[in-house]
Amino acid sequence: MSGMHLMPFPSCWPKKPITESASVSALLLIDNDRSNLSLKQFTSIYRAQLQWRPIAVLLIIAMIWGSNMAFVKLATRDIAPLFMAGIRSLVAAVCLFIWMKAKGLALFPSRMIIFHGVVAGLLFGTEFGLMFVGLKYTLASRGYVILYVAPFVAALGAHFFLVDDRFNRWKAIGLVLAFGGLVVLFLKNLGTLSFEALPGDILFLVAGILWGTTTVYIKKYLAQRADPLQILFYQLFFSAPFLFVFSLALEHPVVSGFSLLTGFSLFYQCIIVAFLSYLVWFVMVSRYPVSLLHAFSFFTPVFGVIFSGILILGEAISPNLILALIMVSLGMMLVNYRPSA
To answer: Taking a C-beta distance cutoff of 8 angstroms, is the pair 198, 134 a contact?
Structure first.
């Protein structure tokens, strides 16, 4: 043993043996350091385009729009759907008119803006008209899935017609994954392909294309030239007459009764949805890439099932709903990823 040099214990070392609790505390500190390192590594790898504040706003909007499905179902007992959509546009347009007058904001600043406003309103009204007519020929669940071709249209339209909103493989994979989540969500109610349902499927497909096209059109021709109040006013004001004419031609009777529940439903649709949430949406459209904004609308049907099925009708949470929520969430993480230059 003469060749082995024994180092003395440093004075800073504990003179007492290390206890079990001290060992556990040391391990916890090591694990915490590792988790912090993993979080730093993840944040350095995953570069988000939208930060948490706009994402939180988009999720709140999706919750409002999703819950609107339940309120529409409740009100259709007394009011025809297209006529109700016309009322919603008209009441919200009146609220916007009052607000714009109070702010001293011009209704129609120029003829060019009026033209683009009319186009946006007609696109919006046509989209709703096609959806409600399509429901006569196809299943609502299948039509809802087909409608969500809109985020794909918005992403491709933004790539070709807008600046700094490029389509890439991350967006493509994310959108496909989120769309797959919707298919999983409504899988049991999609029905089978048939020639009888084909007209309704086509109408919903065109409605989805118009939805995505409208967002891109507004971003290109109105977002930088008009205030969000003006943009929303044009969409609602010019769509209301179109919806009423559509209703009178296709629906009878337009009003079969009225109740306190119907009145509350109309209030929610007119004020909360069409007036407030749409206004916030157009503020977002004026600030952020529309391909990202539209992609987050995939959460709307998921929240719709949660609100209408679980909270209102008391249905159990299904594995399909959980899987759909996971797939949509992962899809949005991919869509929101910012690849390196």
So the answer is: no
Q: Which residues pair with 79 in a beta bridge?
A: 255
pLDDT of residue 21: 45
Report DSSP letters for 251-300, one per residue. -S-SB----HHHHHHHHIIIIIIIIIIHHHHHHHHHHS-HHHHHHGGGHH
- pLDDT per position as a tens digit, 288-319: 999 999 999 999 988 888 876 666 656 667 78
277: left (phi over 0), alpha (psi -120 to 50) or beta: alpha
Residue 187 gets which letter from DSSP?
A: G
Residue range 175-210, pLDDT digits in tens: 999 999 998 988 877 766 677 778 889 999 999 999
Q: Distance between CA 56 and CA 147 in Å, rounded?
A: 24
**Distance, CA of 151 to CA of 223 (rounded, Å):** 18
- Among 240, 308, 265, which Cα is nearest to 77's? 265
Q: What is the pLDDT of residue 135?
A: 79
Weakly modelled stretches of the chain, pLDDT under 50: 1-31, 33-43
Length of the chain: 341
Nearest to 234 by CA among 273, 282, 271, 272: 282
CA distance 201 to 141: 11
Q: What is the DSSP string of 192-243?
A: ---TTTHHHHHHHHHHHHHHHHHHHHHHHHTTTTS-HHHHHHHHHHHHHHHH
Nearest to 215 by CA among 154, 141, 152, 129: 154
Give the bridge partners for 255, in sequence order.
Answer: 79
Under 8 Å between Cβ of 90 and 238: no
∠ CA 209-295-190, nearest 5°, is 65
Q: What angle do CA 283, 177, 131 make, to 5 degrees?
A: 60
The pLDDT score that the predictor gives to residue 22 is: 46
What are the boundaries of each domain within the chain? 63-335
